[in-house]
Amino acid sequence: MMKKNIVFDFGGVLFRWHPPSFLARVWPHRAADAEQGREIAAQFFENYGGAWGDFDQGLIDAPTVIERIAARTGWPAAEVAQVVAAVPDELQLQTETVALIEELKRAGHRLFYLSNMPEPFADHLQQSHPLHQWFDDGIFSGRVKQSKPRAEIFRLACQRWDVAPESCVFLDDHPVNIEAARALGWQGLLFSDAAQARRELAALG
């Protein structure tokens, strides 16, 4: 495989992030299983728009996102706060993806991350994991006030890392983000698991 700039999403790729099962664990009184959790997640996260989208972009803080979600849904603020507080524990490291990262690094590729992540959770991940050892650099949405799938964050990444769009391979688990990257000239691979990503990266040559 030719040397490339490989860019990783975090939630659902390097760290566990599955809102339906997450909410079923945190709110069993509201979501008895992942199927009910899916319905609750749609209301809570609004497909990462609304208040949570603003939180992702660093436009509002945790108390404000709690207040806005509670006001919109009628759920008690204390329960909404419980979900927000539980997010760091949900973001468990996916060891298979770490193995892939280490393989790619040994092979000489440059590795970056581009993650929609509110600042408090970005701080947690940086303090808990050796991101600086795995990646050359990275961008958290909450720190740059931009988020995927907006074009601005992809352009900012290329500028900051001094890379051409066509040299970047982006791994993300959301089709809309992959489509946005491809529209700007990036190569994009929709991530399902590390084994699939390894095969598709190898197929790029």
Observed structural traits:
205 residues, alpha/beta, Rossmann fold, 2 domains, 5-stranded parallel sheet, 12 helices, HAD-SF_hydro_IA, HAD family phosphatase
Account of the protein in words:
The protein has helices at residues 19-26, 34-45, 50-56, 62-73, 77-90, 95-106, 119-128, 131-134, 141-144, 151-161, 175-183, 194-204; strands spanning 5-8, 110-115, 137-140, 168-172, 187-190. The chain is of the alpha/beta class and 205 residues long. It has 2 domains: 5-16 and 92-204, Rossmann fold (3-Layer(aba) Sandwich); 19-89. A 5-stranded parallel β-sheet has the order 3-2-1-4-5, with helices on both faces. Helix 3 (50-56) runs antiparallel to helix 4 (62-73). The mean pLDDT is 96. Pfam families: Hydrolase. This is HAD family phosphatase. It comes from Roseateles violae.
